[in-house]
Amino acid sequence: MPENKKQQYLCIKRPPRKDFADSMTDDEAEIMSVHFAYMKQLLADGVLIMAGPVTTGEFGVSVFEAESDEAAKEIVYNDPAVAIGLMTPEIYPYRVSLLRK
């Protein structure tokens, strides 16, 4: 039986306002701290390939692996910043074609 291959996904997470990085409240900063810890755990678990914000702060990008579209949605919607409604996600099937080593 063939081995199940994980699919790759690209996720864009948009904050509630364009100047979010410079204007977040203490409560928002706490949520983003928990979000960062969640992303670090995904990396440690071998799920996350890469992640980070665009330097303008308007959105963040991540590339990760999941077994299915449903599993990808679960990963994204379990992010504390998404679950609480602070970040709005967009998820796309993706394939890393070139990667610098």
Descriptive report:
By secondary structure, this protein is an alpha+beta fold. It has a four-stranded antiparallel sheet. The protein contains four helices and four strands, in the order E-H-H-E-E-H-H-E.
The total domain count is 1
Tell me the strand order in the biggest sheet: 2-3-1-4
Global mean pLDDT:
94
The CATH topology comes to: Alpha-Beta Plaits
How would you summarize this macromolecular structure in one to three sentences?
The chain is an alpha+beta fold and 101 residues long. The protein is 36% helix and 28% strand. The mean pLDDT is 94.
Protein traits:
101 residues; alpha+beta; Alpha-Beta Plaits; 4 strands
Give the SSE layout:
Blueprint: E1 7-14, H1 20-23, H2 26-44, E2 48-53, E3 60-66, H3 69-77, H4 80-83, E4 88-94
Antiparallel strand pairs: 1-3, 1-4, 2-3
